[in-house]
Amino acid sequence: MKLGNHLRRLRFEANEMSQQELADFIGVSRMTIYSIEKGKYTPSTLLALKIALVFKKRVEEIFFIDNMEKGTKEDEEG
Amino acid sequence: MKKGKLLINAFGLLSMIGMVVCFLIYLHIQPLLTPEMPIPTPEIQILGPITIPLIFLAGIYHIFLLLFALESFSNDINHIFAHSLYIALILLSGIFILSDVTLLSDIGKEYTLWDVSMEWQMLYGFTIFHIITMVIGFFLNRNRATFKFQKILGAINNGNDALFIAIHQIGLICGLSGVACVILVVYIPIAERFKSAWLMALSFIAVIPWAFIIIYWIIKSRKKPLAAWIDEKQFSDTAIGALIMGGAFMLLIGIFYILDITHTIIMPTSFWFSLMFFIYLLGFSAVIVIRNRV
Questions:
Q1: Integer Cα distance of B26 and B112 in angstroms
Q2: Residue A71 and residue B211: Cα distance in Å, rounded?
Q3: Which ipTM did the prediction report?
Q4: Cβ atoms B269, A77 nearer than 8 A
Q5: Which of residues 43-62 of A touch B (CB under 8 A)?
Q6: Who contacts A76 (Cβ-Cβ below 8 Å, separation ≥6)?
Q7: Subunit contact B236:A27, Cβ cutoff 8 A
Q8: Across the interface, which of B161, B232, B236 has its CB nearest the CB of A30?
Q9: Chain-wide mean pLDDT for chain B?
Q10: For B91-148, what is each residue's pLDDT tens digit?
């Protein structure tokens, strides 16, 4: 089970916000944002909430459990 | 701005020329300084002291290069390794400048007593190293005019990538150098009684770039609360590095203990600390560098 996210899309929609800008907003390094986007690092609850606050979305609109999302899509298509 | 750039470049050129002049002076003097000539000729008495201000000039230029390097830390993660290597190069070259003065002093006192060809070889090697470092630095900074101390010493953002990754890249370089130094000293053909002193000196030199960058990071982070010095991913990477090296280290110590008691490796007791220290530094830094690759 991996944690997927829509971070890259949301950054693009938010006036093409860069990883560095997002990192500066929430007080982490750019590498942290990069790692989260690539699925290499799972953010803490606090960090996930901070990211949600920046994009004015709920946490579950940004992050999802990867195989669950695939499963949901298969159900919808089926 | 233009004037500042011109001045710095002129100073850099002067320093490089000075080092080349020093090299030529050493080449000229070496065959003349023989035990059969206990009192140096007037020529040597003039040429020898000329090298001191030239070495001093090179030392000052190294400080400029270091300040430029620290100021230009960027968040371009793809080029951080080259930058880290460059900083380690400047620091080592700067330390060796102090060694140049010591070597010249030793040669002056000891050439009548025993063979000083090894000191001469070190002097030539260090001088070439200084010239290479200054040439690289000159071309990297030829368009720089001044440096902003505020940027160099000012506070950094939370979880700054560049500095965090640079610390561990330099740690990797220093760890590798340290292990190489220990192995070198074990097998180098010098008298046993000198080996510990050599090891201490080389270990000290090998650890200085890493110690410097750690101190620099502390200075840059000084105004932040301790919890904000590294962000959560950096904390996680550090913890994983420590966990992996903790386990690997126990295994390594066991292996080295067996090799020692079975006399498979013969190494003086004092060497073990340096070897273990640099292996730990190498492994710990390598884990973090790998976890931060793009």
A1: 17
A2: 51
A3: 0.82
A4: no
A5: 43-44, 47
A6: none
A7: no
A8: B161
A9: 86
A10: 999 999 988 988 888 888 887 777 888 889 989 999 999 999 999 999 888 877 676 6
